[in-house]
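One such shown below:
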Amino acid sequence: MSKQILPAELAEIVVGLLVQPDLLGELDSAEKHQAFMLDIGQAVADHCGGIINQVSLPDSDQGGYLSSEYTSPYLSVSPDASLPSLNKNVWRYYDQEGWEEAALEITPCDAVNSVRMMLQNLLCRPDTEEADDQHRYFYCTFVEINGEYEYTCHFLMHCFKDDDPDELLESLILKFREGGVIMRDFAYVDYPGGTAAKIREMLPISLLDFQTMKKYLSVL
């Protein structure tokens, strides 16, 4: 009978091979590890976009391979038309100084930290997370428009299980600035003074993610 591997279990294997392959007794040379890293990067790009250029050698060989960021290799990724957009893709939360030639929307450090911690928590969940049947939690963003400029706002939202999260989010954005008016079936909100806002996303998150991310983001 074959082994049945869950997504989280496969993620454990990939993380182990990338970060500390000796735990699994595999990829016992820098060349093997870098070849695997290149293949994983290419798999991500094949499904999510981007061009994989190469795996660059570590900046230093002092202290042992993979012992720090300076003794670890780097995956070089360039943008191309296969990305869903320059400002919303799987690579956006990493190396904020990369792709400087592209007109990128700047992602606030708090948002970068909170999303990365949420991803890292995916493999750190306790076997039985405390049940919370009375509450729901969301990671939300919306875009504030002021003339030709657009600014993305990131925040967390908490509501009770019987609340309508869409209605709550509408209410929060309407109150973001005094005098907000819903336009075009909530396609956007107009505020006095020529500014406006439009919703980008509302993602359900776990209690553990909420507790982690609220260290960096406001809760509304």
